[in-house]
Amino acid sequence: MTTNKNNLTTSWGAPVGDNQNSMTAGSRGPTLIQDVHLLEKLAHFNRERVPERVVHAKGAGAHGYFEVTNDVSKYTKAEFLSEVGKRTPLFVRFSTVAGENGSADSVRDPRGFAVKFYTEEGNYDLVGNNTPVFFIRDAIKFPDFIHTQKRHPVTHLKNPNAVWDFWSLSPESLHQVTILMSDRGIPATYRHMHGFGSHTFKWVNAEGEGVWIKYHFKTEQGIKNLTEEVGTKIAGENPDYHTQDLYEAIEKGDFPAWKLYVQIMPLEDADTYRFDPFDVTKVWSQKDYPLIEVGRMVLNRNPENYFAEVEQATFSPGTLVPGIEPSPDKMLQGRLFAYADAHRYRVGANHNSLPINRPKAEVHNYQRDGQMRFDSNGGGSVYYEPNSLGGPQESPENKTTAYPVSGSADSTAYDHNDHYTQAGDLYRLLSEEERTRLVSNIVGSMKQVTKDEIKLRQIQHFYKADPEYGTRVAEGLGLSVPQEV
């Protein structure tokens, strides 16, 4: 007899006779270990939470599509960008960075902006933020940086001393700190913010010719932000405000959309540009490399199950397709390993086989076994390579293109160390009202720092970016700009 579709069953499909009362030895006796349904329910409940992401733990997601609106085939052979009008399904996850899974949406923090394109050649993940730059430019500093954003190991409280101590000793962070403390530090919603690939990537066309590129998603809803006061008020009243806003907008048919643009730099310009184009703490001037339209992203379908889709979605900048390659950006190079490794730990070695991550393209490889292998595991097919049994083989035409490298194997820093020009330019672009709010936000945060030494060291960075910038912060903190600057 088959199980009625309305019957409650165990995980192995057997019907459950009683889901209200556990088996006991008599009405008052102890519970019996033979009640396998009870044991399964409790054991599964204990394991319902996968470890939350170390960063980007709190997030929201949606399905949609990407449509090419401009011919860029002369720059990249990526199939999903091959012709105007071509549509590719995608999934997007927006997130805060530093907070835990239950933290508030409307805090001052960068926002993750991760896009998974389900292309005909496999998945392509574009894992960025709502800012064009980042705090650091070498992955070796990332664990230390994130530790400063987390909780103190003794008090278990956020630690402004650690935050500003690290930033003051890492002047490359100044550009991103200025953005974070500006009006754009608290987006009004996920729909009202831009997205960026942030890193430099390489596009390669069918002839093997390459260019360096940067991605820019421009929101069609317009930029809207929250003040510190409003953000704090919403955090107390509705900590899931951004999550709710995205879901409800899509549910009522108000589909958010973004235009995708790229900046394109000839390969040879990387050696002569006034900033290192692979330094993720810097931007390329749009006067030097104007935005070129690529396509349009629309989000039009909410997840059917948050855990299965948003929580189990895994993104990695190393998930690439032919025609799109990494650059020697030191931060990107570290992320190529770290993101996929985090998912192998968090979700499992077979995370790419889950429905939300599984590519539309067929997968042929020799990876076998591992926890939660829930497909045929390759069946009886050949399981090693090279082989003479007709198994999948590499396609030389899809090798990544070469770029020249030189020098000694050593722990090397970037050659360019101008951390002040772009931060100062950004400050001077702001209106007087925006500068006032920027300084107020910085002063409010730095007042919590207990050591004047840290405050004075950071004030020097602000002053070097723009004397007015440093002076106003110093005055707000009741300090003087150090004489040495």
List keywords for this structure.
about 25% helix, Catalase_clade1/3, Catalase HpII,  Chain A, domain 1, about 475 residues, about 15% strand, hydrogen peroxide, alpha+beta, 12 helices
Largest sheet: 10 strands, antiparallel
Architecture of the domain at 59-132 and 187-358 in CATH?
Beta Barrel
Structural shape: globular
Order of helices and strands: HEEEEHHHEEEHHEEHEHHHHH
Biased composition (Polar residues): 1-25, 398-411
Keywords: Heme, Hydrogen peroxide, Iron, Metal-binding, Oxidoreductase, Peroxidase
EC number: 1.11.1.6
InterPro entries: Catalase, Catalase_3, Catalase_AS, Catalase_clade1/3, Catalase_core, Catalase_haem_BS, Catalase_immune_responsive, Catalase_sf
Textual characterization of the structure:
- By secondary structure, this protein is of the alpha+beta class.
- It has helices at residues 36-46, 142-149, 160-168, 174-181, 228-237, 241-251, 306-311, 330-346, 421-429, 432-446, 452-465, 467-476, and strands at 59-68, 87-96, 111-119, 122-129, 195-196, 201-204, 210-219, 257-266, 292-301, 324-326.
- Among the domains are: 59-132 and 187-358, Catalase core domain (Catalase HpII,  Chain A, domain 1); 421-476, no CATH class.
- It has 12 helices and 10 strands.
- A hairpin with a 5-residue loop joins strand 6 and strand 7 (210-219).
- Helix 2 (142-149) runs antiparallel to helix 3, helix 10 (432-446) packs across helix 12 (467-476) and helix 11 runs antiparallel to helix 12.
Write the layout of secondary structure elements.
Blueprint: H1 36-46, E1 59-68, E2 87-96, E3 111-119, E4 122-129, H2 142-149, H3 160-168, H4 174-181, E5 195-196, E6 201-204, E7 210-219, H5 228-237, H6 241-251, E8 257-266, E9 292-301, H7 306-311, E10 324-326, H8 330-346, H9 421-429, H10 432-446, H11 452-465, H12 467-476
Antiparallel strand pairs: 1-2, 1-9, 2-3, 3-4, 5-7, 6-7, 6-10, 7-8, 8-9
Helix pairs in contact: 2-3, 3-11, 4-9, 10-12, 11-12
Family: Belongs to the catalase family.
Keywords: Heme, Hydrogen peroxide, Iron, Metal-binding, Oxidoreductase, Peroxidase
Biased composition (Polar residues): 1-25, 398-411
